[in-house]
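Q: Could you write out the predicted structure for this multi-component system? I'm mainly interested in how the pieces pack against one another.
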Amino acid sequence: MLATIMYGAGDVRMETVPDPVLRQPTDAVVRVVASCICGSDLWPFGSMPRSEQGRRMGHEFLGVVEDVGTAVPGFQVGDLVLAPFVWADNTCDFCREGLQTSCRHGGGWGVDGVDGGQGEAVRVPQAQGTLVKLPVAVDSELLPSLLTLSDVFCTGHHAAVSAGVNPRTTVTVIGDGAVGLCAVLAARRLGAERIILAGRHKDRTDLGREFGATDVVAERGEEGVAAVRELTGGDGTHAVLECVGTQAAVDMAIDIVRDGGTVGRVGAAQYRQVPFGFDTFLRNITITGGVAPARAYIEELLPDVMEGNIEPGRVFDRTIGFEEVPAGYQAMADRESLKVLIRP
Amino acid sequence: MLATIMYGAGDVRMETVPDPVLRQPTDAVVRVVASCICGSDLWPFGSMPRSEQGRRMGHEFLGVVEDVGTAVPGFQVGDLVLAPFVWADNTCDFCREGLQTSCRHGGGWGVDGVDGGQGEAVRVPQAQGTLVKLPVAVDSELLPSLLTLSDVFCTGHHAAVSAGVNPRTTVTVIGDGAVGLCAVLAARRLGAERIILAGRHKDRTDLGREFGATDVVAERGEEGVAAVRELTGGDGTHAVLECVGTQAAVDMAIDIVRDGGTVGRVGAAQYRQVPFGFDTFLRNITITGGVAPARAYIEELLPDVMEGNIEPGRVFDRTIGFEEVPAGYQAMADRESLKVLIRP
């Protein structure tokens, strides 16, 4: 089958790899119907050292069950299923606490003999715990929005949930990428009425306004901090959803959060330290979040997607086939595309 | 009256200062019955640059109302009252949220014309919001435990509350000072059954065991991390209460918290940065806490002190008069005394 392999920064290729087969009774094989490129894929696309073996890419996909092991009683061949961006048994203590990203028997896509999502098919370990059946047909117009439950919308939701967003909290979202826009949508869904979006790409912040942002701050750094403080009477906002992952973004988050408030970070951390000394101590600031346990949120978010109350799939502004995957990476890296949907 | 003034590292003197008088209708004047020296007083005692003017010391006290302004309807001359370690109006939005340390009209003791607690009397601004009436006589044996509600026990409680301690969480407390021991007691009070105390002074950790610690780890640094991990099957604990404030302590806290867990920090932060990069991102670690809003907790904790369910006053291992205050500082700095009670 065809699969996406990255051999180093800027070098993504579609290549033929062995078709996946069941290896364990807990496996399933899923034929991919829709996949996508993640903002986090751009980090290796920008900086990955050259590799002879390459790295299988993709961790967001939905598709049709093609084969199923004997220890996967909940799924049948032909089921349309969604995979969250890590696989997990969904029964261990971490999973029961809603932290499937730390599952004792789980792991990531594209490593250790597990396929990536940007390919024609995927062997899914721990399929019973990992997969979620989708109650739609394979040609449903809801597929793009359902696909966001694999990662990007759940990641925005995780930022909002971990930062304690509710109808009484003011919110700033840092970053107008797909995760940031999903964080706006998630904060609005949780009832926030004042949502400041910090981003400088007008086409993206315009979609952010449609998702629920009430204010847009285009400035960065100190000017951005000043702008958010001015919008909030000097206080900053109760919740800050950090959706970029750079040092500048997390520094800004800490500078604009209100005393007693919370930074929910979901941008893949490219920094090693956060400034969290005596000033933040006096202000009782919290930093939380991390990699989103999407599996914990899918059932809760699915009805709102099914009923059309939210349309997170609007973050996809380009749909490509496999032959265009390398160009899709480049388009996202060049900020020509917000998020790329792959339909094999 | 006599008051404690620090003129630089190691230089604490008892000096005569003007008697406090009402300046605002919202003031009260309180004659101090019991005060104490705080672990946080040891930071300037170790490093304060020499000052001609000096710094008024003390932020924990209880006493008898001696004079009261016209805008303080809830108190009368003769009332025995407790003061939390910052003063606050207890009506602004921050106070209503339980963050009196960020009160819009509040401040600290010993600065800006407000007396410190280590003296014969104190002018209390915003007295109606700040003071709490104590339902005991001035010669009650409960006074030491009641005095801990001014700061040290509420600070330990804040660590436990902000870290989400409950009967289902395992807990590590870093630090066997008075705050750390109070954090053990607070965690036990909140139902924690497994409480690991990281400390290396046996007399202190022995009191920690009486307060509820189930395990003691005397090792520090990497060995301390390994010891806590070994005690917890490799996982670390759900909650880590950081009660020291050094870089080493906060680094250790992050290394021993379980995936998805929370570090509640209440040690006055002497560090500027915390290591909070990709590893902690993947583990969904939270850092929270800060300076404790004692005022928010006093009413909740008071009954357990009154009924003798908890005896946080046991952290006081020495009682002195004013003439011994400089020696009291030295005793605490030399670790000869855990916490010093001052009875004028």
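A: Regarding packing and overall arrangement: The two ends of chain A are 11 Å apart (CA to CA).
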